């Protein structure tokens, strides 16, 4: 017996998504393809010919890719450590790991401004130690944005990695070792491929998060623009909704491409994951 | 000389000694089982041999070399896990080839060896499957193939059959024994299943609280247990605690209170000072006759009578405790009945 009536339960959710997400997105994308009543790609051409926009796009991608890669490098050891702990301690450590998510992005960014600024903690320490003569320009650079993003999204990577790592049977590692694998080899050939699903999900969360983040790059980037701040500027300051819609569509496209690539990568590295 | 020797080994876990002053030696080509209840230290012993644990004290010699500090990946021992521990992201072929690839073997040689060993474990044609597409018995055989293909110097099994159903367990243990004998590979096998260990082993070590109580051929253990613990483990339920023992030619005279008992000397390994007489329930006899008050008889009262189908089981209360007796009879004794309990001298096994 098919319980067709169960499908009706989907209706409220679908309706909500349709009215508040699908229809607006379709309208946004649609509006970018028509200018003065005729179908055109002019909006996109204009953007991709503009060196200023291309530079913003490049900076955004650089910052997002860098924070994704760094979140893997920093997150993996932490996640591995947490996953090896007893359940009770695991809970405490995970709570600590997601702590950055619990503070407001504004507060968090301001504290980074204090740390990274010309007279901030880092520059003071470097000068005091005699490593540099004059303060380094860290704040209001892509590096500052990346640090802020990493701080914000590292917990995402840690959580999704802990999820897969704690399900890897420790016997698998001992088995690999008993077959002649060193610890490093056992990690590379067993733990890493099995962690791939978590790595991909974590990677997508960090990348898309970094790509679309607004507050952190707005506060730590200074005059440096990323796509999201550029979008805001177009929409709110310049009141150019057409351009803003084009930018939004480009962001959506990038997100889809990246998610697709990551999934492909995951299939290649772990066919049965 | 033994292939493998554990010499005064101690192992601690969270500051608790699991093995203390532990000794074991195993001959080339034998299959030796470690048998005992959980917590007796059998798995710890196996993991120590494998190199997953490091001894706190003592020496582990293998093939005349000191292996105490040799890391796991340099030992060339095959280990079969209770959970099988197959790599879920690799096909059967790649699981088995794992150890060979680490040895930087040429691709065609890898292929030749993997296919040959899969034939040995009757899994030819399964190369492309993934572990989750296999049944429990098939997974187990992949695990065995993976451990065998590296041509290990020693094969270690950690309760390999405990996750299989009863029928499969029997056929798999025959299989394990066949492969072990075919390849002549020295094997240490851990299990808590008595029948399993006795059926496949050359020798069985019965373990209790981190010690080996007895290490002998299965038939020897079954007939001549050395200690009360071993005797109880294999089904002896009745024990007489004698106060004195006197050995004469072929016979042993024992004293229980004011009574004399006799036992026959046998081939077993039991200690010359062993003074506990052990009997299986089937080995004791009951009689109502009072006529010959010979040796090896105690008067008693039937406490409980239980119908077992082929026989009756009686709990008999005597001056020296309660005894369990199985006896075939058409008309059973009734509880409360006075009875004489015979302890046949040829059935008595003296244990520590």
Largest interface between protein chains, with number of residues from each side? A-B, 21 and 27 residues
Helix/strand/pairing class of chain A, anyone?
A: mainly alpha
First-residue to last-residue Cα separation of chain A: 33 Å
How many domains make up the coordinates of chain B?
A: 2
Question: What is the string of helix and strand elements of chain A?
Answer: HEEHHHHHHHHHHH
Number of strands of chain B: 21
CATH fold-level topology of the largest domain in chain B = Rossmann fold
User: Cα-atom Rg of chain A, whole angstroms?
Assistant: 23 Å
Cα-based radius of gyration of chain B, to the nearest Å: 25 Å
* Quaternary status: heterodimer
Would you identify the regions of chain B where 5 or more consecutive residues have pLDDT less than 50?
none
Number of helical regions of chain B? 8
Mean pLDDT of chain B: 88
Globally, the shape of chain A reads: globular
CATH class of chain A: Mainly Alpha
Biggest sheet layout of chain B: 6 strands, mixed
CATH third-level topology of chain A: MetI-like fold
Mean pLDDT of chain A: 90
Q: Identify the overall geometry of chain B.
A: elongated
CATH architecture of the largest domain in chain B: 3-Layer(aba) Sandwich
């Amino acid at each position: 017996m098919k319980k067709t009536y169960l499908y009706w339960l989907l209706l409220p959710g679908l309706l909500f998504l349709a009215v508040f997400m699908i229809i607006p997105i379709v309208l946004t994308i649609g509006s970018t393809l028509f200018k003065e009543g005729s179908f055109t790609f002019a909006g996109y051409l204009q953007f991709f010919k503009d060196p200023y926009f291309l530079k913003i796009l490049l900076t955004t991608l650089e910052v997002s890719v860098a924070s994704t890669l760094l979140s893997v490098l920093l997150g993996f050891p932490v996640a591995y450590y947490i996953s090896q702990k007893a359940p009770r301690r695991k809970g405490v450590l995970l709570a600590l790991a997601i702590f950055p998510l619990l503070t407001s992005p504004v507060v968090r960014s301001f504290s980074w401004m204090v740390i990274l600024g010309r007279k901030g903690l880092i520059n003071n320490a470097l000068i005091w130690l005699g490593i540099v003569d004059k303060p380094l320009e860290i704040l209001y650079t892509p590096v500052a944005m990346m640090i802020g993003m990493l701080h914000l999204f590292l917990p995402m990577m840690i959580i999704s990695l802990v999820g897969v790592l704690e399900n890897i049977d420790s016997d698998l590692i001992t088995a690999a070792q008993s077959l002649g694998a060193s610890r490093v080899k056992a990690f590379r050939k067993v733990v890493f491929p099995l962690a791939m699903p978590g790595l991909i999900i974590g990677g997508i969360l960090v990348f898309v998060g970094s790509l679309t983040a607004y507050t952190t790059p707005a506060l730590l980037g200074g005059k440096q623009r990323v796509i999201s701040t550029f979008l805001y500027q177009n929409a709110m300051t310049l009141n150019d909704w057409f351009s803003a819609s084009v930018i939004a569509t480009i962001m959506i496209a990038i997100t889809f491409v990246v998610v697709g690539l990551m999934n492909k990568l995951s299939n290649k590295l772990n066919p049965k994951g | 000389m033994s292939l493998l020797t554990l010499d005064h080994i101690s192992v601690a876990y969270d500051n608790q000694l699991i093995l203390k002053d532990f000794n074991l030696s195993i001959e080339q080509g034998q299959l030796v089982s470690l048998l005992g209840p959980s917590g007796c230290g059998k798995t710890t012993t196996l993991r120590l041999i494998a190199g997953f644990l490091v001894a706190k004290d003592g020496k582990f010699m293998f093939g005349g070399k000191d292996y105490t500090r040799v890391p796991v990946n340099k030992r060339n021992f095959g280990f079969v896990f209770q959970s099988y521990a197959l790599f879920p992201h690799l096909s059967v072929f790649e699981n088995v080839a794992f150890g060979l690839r680490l040895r930087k073997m040429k691709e065609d040689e890898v292929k030749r060896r993997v296919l040959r060993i899969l034939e040995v474990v009757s899994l030819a044609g399964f190369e492309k499957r993934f572990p989750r597409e296999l049944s429990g018995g098939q997974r187990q055989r992949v695990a065995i193939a993976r451990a065998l293909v590296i041509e290990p110097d020693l094969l270690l099994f950690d309760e390999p059959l405990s996750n299989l159903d009863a029928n499969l367990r029997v056929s798999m243990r025959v299989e394990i024994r066949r492969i072990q004998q075919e390849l002549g590979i020295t094997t240490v096998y851990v299990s808590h299943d008595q029948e399993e260990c006795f059926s496949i082993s050359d020798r069985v070590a019965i373990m209790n609280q981190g010690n080996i109580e007895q290490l002998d051929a299965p038939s020897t253990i079954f007939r001549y247990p050395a200690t009360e613990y071993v005797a109880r483990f294999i089904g002896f339920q009745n024990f007489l605690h004698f106060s004195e023992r006197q050995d004469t030619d072929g016979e042993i005279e024992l004293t229980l209170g004011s009574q004399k008992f006799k036992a026959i000397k046998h081939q077993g390994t039991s200690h010359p000072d062993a003074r506990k007489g052990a009997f299986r329930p089937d080995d004791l006899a009951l009689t109502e006759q009072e006529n010959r008050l010979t040796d090896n008889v105690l008067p008693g009262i039937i406490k409980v009578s239980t119908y077992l189908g082929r026989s009756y089981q009686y709990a008999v209360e005597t001056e020296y405790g309660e005894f369990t007796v199985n006896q075939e009879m058409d008309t059973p004794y009734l509880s409360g009945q006075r009875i004489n309990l015979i302890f046949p001298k040829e059935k008595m096994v003296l244990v520590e």
